[in-house]
Every structure is written in structure tokens, then in C-alpha cells.
Amino acid sequence: MCRSGFSRDSYASKLFAAKAAPTQYPVSFLRDGILGKYSVMRGQCITVILLALLSGACTTPAARNDAFAAASGFTRQIVTGTDFSHLVFMANNSADTRREESVWHVYIEGDGKPWVRRHVVATDPTSPEPLMLQLMAQDLRPAIYLGRPCYYGMVRDPACNPWLWTYGRYSEQVVESMSTALASLVSENAITSLMLIGHSGGGTLAMLLAERVPQVRLVVTLAGNLDIDAWTARHGYTRLVHSLNPARRPPLPRHIDQLHYVGRDDGNVPPEMLEAAVSQQKNARVFVLDGLGHEHGWDDCWAEILHTIDFAGRGYE
Q1: Are 209 and 175 in contact, with CB atoms under 8 Å apart?
Q2: Nearest Cα to 140, choosing from 109, 103, 108?
Q3: For the whole prediction, is pTM greater than 0.85?
Q4: SS3 string of the chain?
Q5: Burial 161-183 (b: 16+ CB within 10 A, else e)
Q6: Which domains occur in the chain, in start order?
Q7: Which residues pair with 286 in a beta bridge?
Q8: If we measure between CA atoms, which residue out of 185, 184, 156, 169 comes closest to residue 245?
Q9: Are 232 and 263 a contacting pair, CB within 8 Å?
């Protein structure tokens, strides 16, 4: 299904192009374990050079993602939800383009890095290389990257705590805040139709958001974790007891179409788990793609998947 040798600007190459002057960061900004064991006095700062690839081990994931978004021409804004602030990137389509395109694409990232290792919670769950941000850079449609609570530098929000990116990562509190933030964007941009696109845990959230956002016409998941109880049982993880499980929710309304893509080599969310999770859904189709895993291969395939969706025969315009 995927084109070999698909030409694209990679996350790394765009970071390398986004050069900046030497900048000082407090040591507390460094992720645990990246530089190994070190001992510093409180308040001490170190100088790091922001030369993308070379600075990948020194800057925060949020700073690297900001650099990639800027290099991709996205605008950055903070949108208020219910209890949280949400980082949002928007594709810089012209006003004319926005009027012509009736369906907006909303990208929702996966879970990132909730844990440093088993039983050790991360202080910042932001993904170091966010797949959905990279996929949005290939999309020519009006597009929104909707940040999750406490991710992308928002971890200092007063309402944030590790529960929100571990056992409560798909909780009512998280989903409601994202829904409120998205409703603000819909109103601000006079959006009438949405396509929600989520990878892994972002697919979980896309399904949960679709229940409560009336403009949603299509949900697309990539390696979507759509039965969190089956997922935790398969991997021997503690159940996400405070999270909402799409597999335990009523099916989405029939007017919302669903396209669920999964890699045949996905050991995290295998095809049979996804197929079982959506078996009771209406208007849901599952596509098993050869040569793809949970993370790898999606950036090579995304342009072709988008083309397939555009011509799927249901008229999403």
C-alpha cells in the first residue's frame, strides 16, 4: 500500500534546519537518565546548543516539537479547556483555502512516554518524536494538532499530576477538557465538519471525543488502542481503572464513519485486538497493512492513506 522512497521532510531534518543561538536551560529541564548520572547544585544552569539533532539529548521534547512545528509553517497557540490549557498547532492555510475545504482534520497524538521505566512515572510524558505532528506536516488540508492535557510543556498547569498521563490518561476529566478546547476552535474557525485522526492512545481519545463533538463526520485511527482492558491484560499492565474504554461505550452514531488502520507487525495493538474492539461499531472498517508496526512505517504511508480516504466513496467533503 505504501510508496517506496516517499519524499518528505523528516522530523530530524526539520529540526536540524531550525538552528538557534546558544541558550541556557536549568538542569531540571533535562529528562531523567538522558545524560546519565550527574550531580549539580540547585539552580545551576548549563549551556546547550540548539542544533536540532545534536541538541536532541539536551532540549526538552516540547522545545523540539515547537521547532519542528515552526519549520513546518504551523502556528502555535494555547487554548483553554475545562481544567487544562492545551497546546494547539494549526496549519497555515490561507483564508480562501479554509473556505474551500469544508472538512478539517484534527490530529491527536499517542500516549508519548508516561513511564520512564516500569513503576517509575515520567515527569513529562511528551513524546520525543511525535508521529502525528509529522503526519500533519504532510497534510494539505486545514488541520489542527490538538494537544493533550499536561503534555507539550503544559505539565506545570496547576491541575496536572501524573495520574493524568498514567491511569487516568483517558479519564472524563481529560476527554471533557479536550472536547471543550476543540469546541472553541470549531467556533472560532466556523468549522462545520471534522475528521478526527488518532494514533495509538490518540485513537482512544478520538473515539471518546467523537461521542461529544457534533461536527465529527469521520474517525480515523492508526494502531488505535480501542479496548484498553484487553490491552492492559495482554501486556500484564495494571488496568487503567480511571479511564474511559471505547470498547465499553455505546457504538458511535451511524452517521460517523470509522476507518481503523493497523500494521500486521504491530505487537502492541495486534490486528485481532483491534478487530474485536470495533466488532460492535457501526460503519467501521478495519485495514491491516503489511510492513507496518505500532510506530514505524506510518510516515511513509500517510500520504497514500489520505488519498485513499479522500476517494473512499462516502464524500467527506
Answers
A1: yes
A2: 103
A3: no
A4: CCCCCCCCCCHHHHHHHCCCCCEEEEHHHCCCCCCCCCCCCCCCEEEECCCHHHHCCCCCHHHHHHHHHHHCCCEEEEEECCCCEEEEEECCCCHHHHHHCCEEEEEECCCCCCEEECCEECCCCCCCCCHHHHHHCCCCCCEEEECCCCCCCHHHCCCCCHHHHCCCCCCHHHHHHHHHHHHHHHHHCCCCEEEEEEECHHHHHHHHHHCCCCCEEEEEEECCCCCHHHHHHHHCCCCCCCCCCHHHCCCCCCCCEEEEEEECCCCCCCHHHHHHHCCCCCCEEEEEECCCCCCCCHHHHHHHHHHHHHCCCCCCC
A5: ebebbbbbbbbebbbbbbbbbbb
A6: 60-310 (3.40.50.1820)
A7: 260
A8: 169
A9: no
Kind of pairing, strands 257-263 and 216-222? parallel
Q: How far apart are CA 122 and CA 74, in angstroms?
A: 28
Instruction: Round to whole Å and give the CA distance between 1 and 291.
Output: 9
Digit-coded pLDDT (tens) for 257-291: 999 999 999 999 999 999 999 999 989 999 999 99
The sign of the torsion formed by the CA atoms of 25, 28, 31, 33 equals positive
Q: Are 256 and 283 spatial neighbours (Cβ–Cβ below 8 Å)? A: yes
The span from the CA of 31 to the CA of 112, in Å, is: 14
> How many angstroms separate the CA atoms of 111 and 170, rounded?
10
For residues 263 and 223, what is the distance between their CA atoms, to the nearest angstrom? 7
**Residue 316 corresponds to which cell in the numbers above?**
467527506
Question: Tens digit of pLDDT for each residue in 215-229?
Answer: 999 999 999 999 999
Kindly tell me the burial class for residue 131, based on how many C-beta atoms sit within 10 Å of its own C-beta (0-12, 13-18, 19 or more).
buried
